[in-house]
Amino acid sequence: MCAARSGHEPAERADPELDKLLTLVARGDEVAFEAVYDRLAASAYGLIRKVLRDHAQAEEVTQEVLLEVWRTASRFDPARGGAAAWVLTIAHRRAVDRVRSEEAAAAREQRSAQAPAPAVDEVAESVAASMDAERVRRCLGTLTELQRESITLAYYGGYSYSQVAALLETALGTIKTRIRDGLIRLRDCLGVS
Amino acid sequence: MRLRRRDLHALVGAYALDALDGPERDRFERHLRRCRACEDELRGFAATAAALGMAAAAAPPAALKEQVLATAAVTRQLPPVTATSRWRRAAPGRRGARAGTNGTFGMIPKMATVVAVVALAAAVTLGVITATTRGSLDAERAHSQQIAAVLAAPDARIVTGPTSAGGTATVVASLRRGAIVFTSSGLRVLPSSEVYQLWLLGPGSARSAGLVPAPASGGTTAPVLATGLANGDKVGVTVEPAGGTNQPTTTPIVVLAVPV
User: Is the predicted ipTM greater than 0.90, yes or no?
Assistant: First the structure.
């Protein structure tokens, strides 16, 4: 299904070193926290900026997210998922929380009514030309158009699935299943466990 | 509408992308606690979403690193969840539990408070950095430790409000410590003949709680620590002649009630 998979490491491979670093952070190790920053700040910032589309806000939210990683590192459990997934889950939630709160939501909806939804290719092509990004782009390419649009609008666009359904003029139930089917395909293509 | 189990399970994808709204999200999280298959699938989806996130990586501004590390250094960390506390935290309907993905990715408490305290801690750090360059290191260190103690106090409460001079004022108060920490952002810059003065306002009395330093370039003011907080006090700010006064002479630009 996804030829890109062979010969590559999984994109979100288990990273025992990063997991270990977070364990140290939980004990107040500031050096370990700096190492975690170096490894994950760019991913968190890039993702948050893509969702918020605003440098200043992205910087603010990134700072909140990284401090939350510092504060809550003791709650990280490697048995339940890797460190990168943990941090990026927090980052994405915070970005989405920001999008859905305040008047930001209203202003943004107005904008999106005028501007077309971000094209998938724009999302995929603006990413850094790293191996991981290239693999993600290729795997996104294996999805059906509706799966891909649903997932990118929800994840990179920060839209709820009912908003996605409205944007794509598709039934709610259809979007729900397309998101799940698409994620299954994407997961298998990327080779994450 | 009551969703059936199968329909609920189909929401795992949307949930992994943070694409569920409040009530539906809560309902799914309740389902998730009893659904091992959902949990397994969610783990894979979270890793998949993380790969999407990492593909969007972009270098943050260089200054962010120093700011984050310095703020972390003065931010208290949460203790680990023990068996008893995990049980209590897992109680359904608890606000803030959503960030915990049913424990899959840990619990994150009262978001608004965290955000505000982080903002304050950042201000504290900036204050420390400024003071360090001036050389009064030890005194400032002790001062910032006192501030950090108020921020970390178990009974610390935070209140934020707009001021009539623009921007917002933020107070973290700990009755147990009898102290407040005040900071602000976006206040109108005053001519050198005037200052912002902080007051503790009791019934029929106003006690000066010090002068608010001039805003830094980012528009935030370094945190002011004031002691002598009594139950029922409000915190106010007035514009006064340079050097401050014994009693307020103008209408406060903001008055914040200290939540108990």
Answer: no
